[in-house]
Every structure is written in C-alpha cells, then in structure tokens.
Amino acid sequence: MTLSVLKPASLIGVILLATTACAQPSSADASSAQLSNNSQSAKTAKAVSTAIDQRLRQVLTQAGIKTQITSIVPSNLPNMYQVNLAGQLPLHITEDGRYVIQGELQKNPSKRVVTKTPARSTSAQVGKPVSASVKSDMLANMAALKNMSAKTPFFYTAVPGVIWGATLEGVPFLLSDDAQYITDGEISVIENGQFIGLDENFEKRKNQSVFATLDNSQLITYPATSPEKAVIYVADDVNCPYCRRLHQQVPSLNAKGVTVNIIGYPIYEASPEQMRGIWCQADEDSRRQAFDKAMLQGQMTPASSSCTVDHVTPNREKAAGLAVMATPAIYREDGVLYQASFESPEFLEFLGIE
C-alpha cells in the first residue's frame, strides 16, 4: 500500500471540483502561504536506536509500504520519526507505529519569538481547540505568515505536540506546537498491521468541537416533522447548484425524522451579500422562507436598509475548523462527514434512516 503523495511545492494544494459539490475558489493569499520550502533531508541526521529502526521498518513493511526505506531519523514534528523513502516524500510516524503523516516539512520563516516548549496535549484533549496560551504563543511565532490570525482554528491531534490547523478558506495543515514546521500532510492510522485511513476519531471530535462553538441562533434550522432520528449540519451556499438540489430533499428528510441545520457558508463571489440579506430577516420563519426562495426559486431577498449587521460571517469563520472544501458539506451530529452522493441510498443509511 502507498499513502497518497502530496505535492511539496506549496502548502496549499489545488482544490478539485467534486461531482456532487461546489468547490471553493482558491485564493492568492492561501496558495502562497509564505512558507520556505526548506527540505528536511538537509538537516543533520540524528541517531535512532536499532530497536526502534527495525520495529518501524517492520510496521511499515507489514502495512504495505514497498518503497525502499533509506533512513529513519528523528522528525522535526514532536514525538515522531521521519522515514525517508527512495523517490517519495518522507513519512513521519509515532514510535508505536500507529500514526503516520506523509509530507515534506516546510520551515516557518517567521522569527521565533516564543522559545519555550509548550505543555504537550493529553488523549482527553484530542479534537479540542488548543488553549488560548498555546494559540497565542504559536501565532507569535507565525508573524511572517500573513493568512494566520487569531481567527485561525487550531486543534490538538492524537500526537502530542502535533497541531491541526486550517486557513479561514478551510485548507487544513499540520504543524509542530512551536510553529516551527508545517506540512500539508494528514494523519493516517495503522491498525492491526494495516492502514485504515485518516484518523476518524480526531475528525469526529474536532467537528463536534466546531459545532459546539457555532451560534445556534444564526443557523437556519428545518426541524424533523416526525420523531427525530438524526440531526445533520450542512455548510451551504445559495449559489451552489448541488446545495439547491440537496435543499429540494429537505422536506422529505424532515418527514423521515431528520433535523437539518444550515450553516451559512458562502463560497461564490456574490453569495456573502446575498446571504447576509437572508440572515437579516427579522425572525426564524422569515429567514427560512427567504432561504427557501433562494434555494428553490433562485430569488434572493435583499437586506433592508436598517440591517447593517453581518450574521453570516461569524459562524462561517467558526466553521473553518470543518475544513470545508466544497459545498454542500454534510455532517452528522457526531461529527462524521458524509463523503458520497446525497442522492444515493447510502445517504439514508449514513443517517441511520430506513
């Protein structure tokens, strides 16, 4: 087995258009994350014990890595080892062989202001936002990265010292908790000797943490019209054709016991102001009616002159931690992202609906 190969030229990868989703446009700021592309292969190799070297080679070989392992050295990501592969990007793996990242580490070009080692996370913190003090220290060490700010979401991963982050455009990345090294790799899991995919436990807990931060009064909610069996969150844009197709199914989902919470998530150029008009409506029923007109008839409701507030952006920024690449992005209440066509029978199975 081979992990997906990531492109080292830029932290921000190309965003592809899915067949049942509307993709976010890439931004110039995001695609030039201002990172120096210093190769880790240039760093001085440090000794790794023979026992650890042999064990990690055995784990990776059993898991299906057929590429020649040229060396194993301590990684610049905390609590990980770097496995150098012939002709491929390196792997970074925990000593127990459970968590693996594939990707070239990029050195943060910012001046290191905070030099202390942060308190490392515990298993109970996995998927939780980093503490205010850790975030403050990280951002202090990221001054040269112009698309990083106090609004940038950061979460603890299952690897102590490795932090998950996302740009406000929803592009995920990993970094050391001292903010010195960054990669666009993702954490995969080896279980029972085999790669089983991304760390789903982290993804679920992270998404649950995001849901908990949302302002529920600024969600557009379509309650179940029969005994509730499932709750979903949908990141939606009024100009996304696939969002409109999903919206046609909302009454049917409600009748089947599914409550639908809409997160305003504009990605098209015209959408922020159009969606602000919808969210400016005086009450929840009026907001639903305006949203229905937009999604079902293509009729936008402008904001009144008295409404100067933007009720969409705050939740949109909080939802950056969902790392939405395309709308509609559909999540169960437990944080699991649906990754197939919502027009497939699998969708109801995903929701536990017969």
Can you describe this structure?
With 354 residues, this protein is of the alpha+beta class. Helix content is 25%, strand content 21%. A six-stranded antiparallel beta sheet has the order 2-3-4-5-11-12, with helices on one face. It is globular and about 65 Å long. The two termini are 36 Å apart. The relative contact order is 0.14.
In a few lines, what is going on in this structure?
With 354 residues, the protein is of the alpha+beta class.
Question: Which features does this protein show?
Answer:
about 350 residues, alpha+beta, 6-stranded antiparallel sheet, 5-stranded antiparallel sheet, 10 helices, about 20% strand, globular, disordered N terminus
List the helices and strands and how they pair.
Elements: E1 22-23, H1 28-31, H2 50-62, E2 69-74, E3 81-85, E4 88-93, E5 99-102, E6 106-107, H3 132-140, E7 154-156, E8 162-166, E9 172-176, E10 181-183, E11 187-191, E12 194-198, H4 200-213, E13 220-222, E14 230-236, H5 241-247, H6 250-255, E15 258-264, H7 271-279, H8 284-297, H9 313-318, E16 326-327, E17 329-332, H10 346-351
Parallel strand pairs: 14-15
Antiparallel strand pairs: 1-16, 2-3, 3-4, 4-5, 5-11, 6-10, 7-8, 8-9, 9-10, 11-12, 13-15, 14-17
**Which strand order spans the largest sheet, edge to edge or round the barrel?**
2-3-4-5-11-12
What is the alpha-carbon Rg in Å?
Answer: 22 Å
pLDDT averaged residue by residue: 89
Oligomer: single chain
Q: What percent strand?
A: 15-25%
- Helices and strands, in order, run as EHHEEEEEHEEEEEEHEEHHEHHHEEH
Overall 3D geometry?
A: globular
> How many strands, what sense, and barrel or not for the largest sheet?
6 strands, antiparallel
